[in-house]
Amino acid sequence: MAVEEIEKLKGDRKMSLREMLPRFWKYLKPEMLWIILAFVFSILNVALDVISPKFIAGVVDELEGKARIFDVLTSVSAPRYVIILAVSSLVLTLLSQGFILLETWILNKAGQKIVYSLRMEVYQHVQNMSQDQLNEMPVGSLVTRVANYTASLSELFTHILVNAIKNILTVVFVFVTMLTINVVLTLFMTIFLVVIFIISFFFRNIVRKIFTEERKTISDLNTFLNENLSGMKIIQIFNQEIRKENEFDKKNDALRRCRNKVMIAFGIYRPLLSFLYFGAIATVFLCGLEFSLSSGAVLAFYLYISKFFNPIQALADQLNGIQKAFSSSERLFNLLDVKPAVRDLPDAIELNDVKGKIEFKNVWFAYEKDMWILKDVSFTINPKETCAFVGATGAGKTTILQLIVRNYEIQKGDIFIDGINIKNIKIDSLRKTVGQMLQDVFLFTGTIRSNITLHDDSYSDEEIMKVCKYVNADSFIDKTEKGLDEEIIERGENFSQGQRQLLSFARTVLAKPKILILDEATANIDTETEVLIQESLEKIKNIGTMLVVAHRLSTIQKADQIIVLQNGEIIEKGNHQQLLKNKGYYYKLYQVQFAEK
Amino acid sequence: MLLSRYLNKYYRKYWYLYLIGIIALIFVDYLQLFVPEFLGQLVGIFEDAAKDGVFTDTMRTDIIKIALYTIGIGAGLMAGRMIWRFTLFNASFKVEAGLRHDMFAKAEKLSVEYFHSNKVGNIMSSFTNDIDEISEYLGFGVVMLVDGFALGLMCFVKIAILSWQFLIILLIPMVLIVVWGLLVEKFMADNWTKRQKAFDELYDFTQESLTGIRVIKAFVKQKQEIRAFSKVAHKNKDVNVRFVLISAGFDVVIEIVIGLLFAMNLGFGGYLAVTGETINFLGIDYSINGRNLVTLIGYFDTLIWPLIAMGQIVAMYSRSKASMKRIEEYMDSPEDIKNSENPTILDNVKGKIEFKNFSFKYPSRDTNTLENVNLVIQPGECIGIVGRIGRGKTTLVNALLRIYNVNNGTVFIDDVDIMNAELKSLRNAISYVPQDNFLFSDTVKRNIAFSDVDLDDEKVKFAADFACVGNDIEGFKDKYDTVTGERGVTLSGGQKQRISIARAFVKESPIMILDDSVSAVDVKTEDTILKNIRELRNGKTTLVVASRVSTVCHLDRIIVLNDGSVEAFDTPAYLLKASPTYAKMVYLQELEQEVEGR
Fold it and tell me: What CATH number has the domain spanning B5-331?
């Protein structure tokens, strides 16, 4: 794989803001109307929020008999004026809360829609990636991209940015309102604001460093824990408990010290800000007197100070959030830029009416350059025949099966199905034609049904049960409490090796393939199930052409053709009796592998 | 407070930090409540000035005094807040670290059996999630608890002193908030769990589906799989929309009740202050002046936080309680491998091994894996153990290490019952090479010198050469300082096996066990390693478990295991005649060599 592609996979390629903005727009565009609407609500909410201290100020001013700030109400009597202000403040609260509710609802809905469509896009993209691309990347980091990074991209727009703008608006609104009360005092407050701003951003840089250190220490500790819990047996046998405990204590203490650093940073920052807050209040008290403000105006300033200062602190946090969200988005976009490696040719065809003839013509294949796994392999399997591949480990048996379904591309030679070169066949069509029964059966969490149909709802229960009966899986399925709905836990651990094998047969047969490939498991299977599996295989091979990497004597004995491989080359061909008579390699192999049994 | 015997000892140790922190916190709360009073006084002065029409000098000095007091309080608050942050959080980190230490120490005492039946992932989740939950409660939780109670209580008292009548009228909506919080708490928690579950489902689905993507591709079921994913993703969307709406609604209700209270205060109090009237409402006389009204509003503003904190603390407590329960279960799990009451310390071990009527059954199985084994291995013998897979070879050698408990009086080393041997000395007497050759992600040197990290380089190199891995190591970029494992170079199976042989060899124990440890090594290297064993461990007992006969056919004696019992135990030459299983294995091996073209 090209270095560039791998870089994209790992998400290391840096993107400029200019490159990212149009990509963001793609996801925002469908929801833009809603986002704007939410924005309107949020402006209204901020505005109402900023007005509310005025009502208290109004009431207090009235006690002093000062001029009324709400001058439309000059003719109203004092008690009525007070009541009107109180009721208005309640109405204001109701309205502003209503706006908040609407805003949250709309934004969240839009945000979740974005997450949903992003997740679908990323997931589909990963599904279409090829096996060797997937091998380059731990499943865990792919999952993080699908589950977490998508959410943080959407959060950037529906949460962080909106709140940041809201905070800026609040500061502006409060500033303007304060200006209308007293210009000089407002400028004093602005000095405090600037100081807090500077402290906050200075603090943000320190804290970011400490947080990075903390994350590293935590992951260090967890890696240590994971490894040492897994290797506890070795630690105990080698009597290394005390040393490991000391090593653990060091890491544990490093984390504690790191947390202490966070605590000290916040322990200075927060109290310092609260002190500045009180300084600002004292300033208002003093200046109120000097500038002969009304007590209502002093009260209003008092209430505005916290509305003024809090958003600034929050803005510092939000900047961190924006940075984080950008780096997640970068990784997401990088992943989406990876192009699937095995692709259909433009004029690739669908397979129809497959007879099942398979031909390998001078096939050479290597996973790594010049390390040939298959060397000039040629053979023909006629429709409906069963062909068994035998040979020592590493002879190239399983590789042949992998190549038929184009999990890998061959370097030299050709592979034909019904005379058509598989390179010219659409991959989906090819894989639908070839039913694969792999060595280690992978079962998904879910039910027996979902594992046989692989989430394809188009099959009826009768069809499924018919297939289960056909492959002898019905006997154990019937014995379970819920039948097809019986739950399967992670990796199918609540079923035996043999039962899992039968389920994989059912899975394959249900898909009605014309060609079957089977990589027989070497693991020990209990005798009872073994009998079921052998019977089942007898039936399955009638479905179509079958290629088996065989470990069972019975499978080999009954095969129409046996191909014997050694070091990537075909050394013998024929059926069981013929090959035994030859007294060649197969004869010896037969004795090694089966004579014992 | 979160109580548990695993935490209490730390409370006792760090009580002074908690005490100082709590005092500082209460002090801060106390100072905070002066501010509304100042506001009231200030308004009072302004009122007086407005009434008289003049600003007297006393008024001026009073205001300057108030401003100075405010700064003083600001300074006091800063100091107090620093103190409680530095003490309470410090204490919580200390308790956290202590608990984590105890949990690790516990892990070191748990048996292999425990790690078999409990996934490492689950134990890890206790180490991370549960500890985080507890640490959060011990830090922020304690702050919220004390702050909520102290500030709330003092606020109530202050309001009562100012005007007990207003306390009563305010009490009703306040009770409403708390009741609402408690009522909705469970509902909210359920919704939170639902949301978390939906996310976990998405996460697990993706994880599994991408792990098994082979199958999906093989069956061309991408479309169906994507549809199934879409269902899960859709559910996530809906649950999230619902959750956010509900929690926003919850907050809105509280905000509205607070707004209502506020308006009541303002309207009712303002009316009374403006008119100067006394109103009888429900048998209580109400009256208030402007100054007290402002103070009241200030108190009221302060009271909001403790009310909200109360609701949060309940949820936090129940979460940390659940986490503590899980940790307690882990800490209480039995340690089944431990010293007997009067253990014999194995010293100067000669290396005699004896099995007497030894039978063994794994706790998780129904039948015996080994049945009635009787044999004696003399000091200094080199013994091979063969038999087909699952015939009890590993079980036999593991019994010597006491990885599992065995019946008393069945296994002896130097005539000491191993159940009665002191564990450390027993394990010191044995150099063990396990089947799964687990290495730590550390340097090659530290992996080899695992039993003694201070071992000098010469000895490490000697051991590496003993295990025929010295040349491989010299070929690595950083030689003996090469880091192996997850974050370092990937070693081949054979290299791992040989490094773990070297790791065992450096112990130079009187007994060495190799449990199928050369299976991934080529035959020539295997021969060299076996030759080294015979030469360099001359006079010491060595047990070699093998699946190939070639590995053991030159050793002193061979144990042939079949169906859980000893079929034969004798010299290779004799076994070839006497044991059909052994003879057949030798025959098959010769055939195999021919087939493989060796």
Answer: 1.20.1560.10
Chain A environment of B116 (Cβ under 8 Å): none
Instruction: Report the complex ipTM.
Output: 0.83
CATH architecture assigned to B437-508: 3-Layer(aba) Sandwich (3.40)
Instruction: Write out chain A residues lying below 8 Å of B108, CB-based.
Output: 232, 235-236, 241, 244-245
CB contact under 8 A, B208 and A490: yes
| Backbone angles phi and psi of A113, in degrees to 5 | -65, -40
Q: Do A234 and B202 touch (CB under 8 A)?
A: no
pLDDT tens digits for B326-344?
889 888 888 888 888 888 8
The secondary structure of residue A422, as a DSSP letter, is G
Look up the CATH number of domain A358-595: 3.40.50.300
Listed residue (B103, B411, B21) closest to A225, CA to CA: B103
CATH architecture entry for A1-180+318-341? Up-down Bundle (1.20)
Strand B284-286 versus strand B279-281 pairing type: antiparallel
How do the domains of chain B map onto residue ranges? 5-331, 348-429+509-598, 437-508
DSSP-assigned letter for residue B88: I
**pLDDT tens digits for range A575-591:** 888 888 888 888 877 77
CB atoms within 10 A of CB B539: 10
Measure the CA–CA gap between A302 and A305, rounded to whole angstroms: 6
> B143: closest CA among A256, A270, A199, A277?
A270
Under CATH, which number does the domain B348-429+509-598 receive?
3.40.50.300
Question: Among B321, B296, B299, B315, which residue's Cα sits nearest to residue B250?
Answer: B315
CA A67 to chain centre: 62
Q: Does the predicted TM-score (pTM) go above 0.90?
A: no
Query: How far is it, in rounded angstroms, from Cα B80 to Cα B32?
Result: 11
Separation in Å, CA of B65 to nearest CA in chain A: 9
Q: Do domains B348-429+509-598 and B437-508 have the same CATH topology?
A: yes
pLDDT-flagged residues of chain B (< 70): 1, 311, 364-365, 388-391, 485-490, 591-598
φ, ψ dihedrals at A204, nearest 5°: -60, -40
